From TrEMBL:
The keyword Cytoplasm appears for this protein: no
InterPro entries named in the record: MetI-like, MetI-like_sf
Family in the record: Belongs to the binding-protein-dependent transport system permease family.
Pfam families: BPD_transp_1 (PF00528)
Membrane topology: Multi-pass membrane protein
Gene3D superfamilies the UniProt entry points to: MetI-like
Keyword Magnesium: no
Protein name per Swiss-Prot or TrEMBL: Proline/glycine betaine ABC transporter permease
Amino acid sequence: MLDADDLAIFPVDQWIADAVQWVALHLRPLFLAIKWPVENLLSFNDYILHEIPFPIFVVLVFLTAYRLASIGIAVFSAISLVVIAAIGVWTEAMTTLSLITTAIVFCTAIGVPTGIWCARNDKVWSVVRPVLDIMQTTPTFVYLVPVVMLFGVGTVPGEVAVVTAAAPPLIRFTNLGIRMVEQEMVEAGLAFGADKRQLLWEIQLPLAIPTILGGLNQTVLTAMVMSVVVAMIGAEGLGLVVLQGLGRLDVGRAAVGGIAIVLLAMMLDRITQQLAQPTDRKRRSVLRYLFNLFKGERSHEAIATSAANRTH
């Protein structure tokens, strides 16, 4: 009787292994160039976060959360940091936070321009969309295999995996936010003489900011999840605490790492989620910009009319 395994005539696993090996050997300078900014920014953020004294850091987070979100979220953030320090994983938490902040910088630098490009060009979006589908449906552990082969093991390769996994939501939400801007606003800007650059920076982006920040919230949460997973390839932080606890069957150690991860994730989620709340301020600023364009257009018309009258 014919077995299903007998139908396996394409050695896809070998093809992929050979392809990755070829890329690792022949494109090594490219991956070293990618690794260099990641390593430097990660080292800088890690140094800053570890050098700030605990009380000052708590106060800074409290003030930042109060300014960006609310007093309730600020109090929750301060209490969460105190609890993390009290259970003895402050250093590991700062390492994880440096991973997250570095990932946010690179995801924003990659995701927002790519999302804008996709929103302004349907052909680009038709190419990028299936790539994002693959990236977001691929299990997180699968990211680790090519990263290890191309970048090695350690915290920096782990950061590369975090950025790769966390960038797609921001690209999608940026594209969606710009496409969702009311057509009447765009047509009004075009009618008053706004060029493509003005249309993007003064009308589309301000109105799309809440949606883009919603994507940033999803990026932060995805980066938080990946920062735990990449402990399997040597990345330091709270994920390594959990992994060590599991490896030693030390339930207490694993639980301590898990508690710190949950508190840190909730703190970041609440702050970024509050940022994404839509307000009327951006809409008012866009309307003010259109009004100024209208006044400028009318003033130019008045000058032209006056000049014509003087000529006659």
